[in-house]
Amino acid sequence: MKEILRCWIEKVQELLEVEMQVKKGVEMCRTLCRHLSNKYVVVSGLAKGIDSIAHQCSLNRGTIGVIGCGLDVIYPKQNEALYKTMRKNHLILSEYPKGVAPLAFHFPWRNRILAALSDVVIVVEAKKKKWFYAYG
How far apart are CA 46 and CA 92, in angstroms? Predict the structure, then answer.
C-alpha cells in the first residue's frame, strides 16, 4: 500500500511540476510579446499553447502564422477564432495545397519556414526531442 501511495504522490508531483512549467511559459510568452510586438512582427506556428498566446498578444501590431496543413484546414479547431482574425487582418502561410490534413511529419518541416522568416528565434517552451528532430 505504501508503494502505491508513493507512486501516486510522485505522479501528482510530476503533474504539478508540469502545470507550473506551463504557467511559467505562458507568463514568459506574454512578457516577451509585450516587449517585442511593438517593434517586431511575431512569427509562430498557430498551434495551441504558446503559439496561440504569441499570436494573440501580437494582434495589435502584426503576426504571421505558418501552418502544417492546407490553408483551408483550421488546426487545432480551438484556434478557429484566432485563425479567422489572422486570415482577415494578418498573414497565414502554408506550403501545402488546400485540403491537406495536419500530419505529424509536417510540423518539423513547418519549423524550417518559421526559422527562415525570422531574424531571431526565441523558444519559450519545447521538448528537447522535438527541437533536436527539427534542427539537429
Answer: 9
pTM: 0.78
- Quick one: DSSP state of residue 77? G
Go through 104-131 and write b for each residue having 16 or more CB atoms within 10 A of its CB, e for each that does not.
eebbeebbebbeeeeeeeeebeeeeeee
Helix (H) or strand (E) holding 43: strand 42-44
Here the cell at position 93 is 502561410
Size of the chain in residues: 136
Angle CA 17–23–27, to nearest 5: 145
3-class DSSP string for 22-41: HHHHHHHHHHHHHHHCCCCC
Residue 24 corresponds to which amino acid? K
Predicted pLDDT of residue 20: 54
The residue written with cell numbers 500500500 in the block is 1
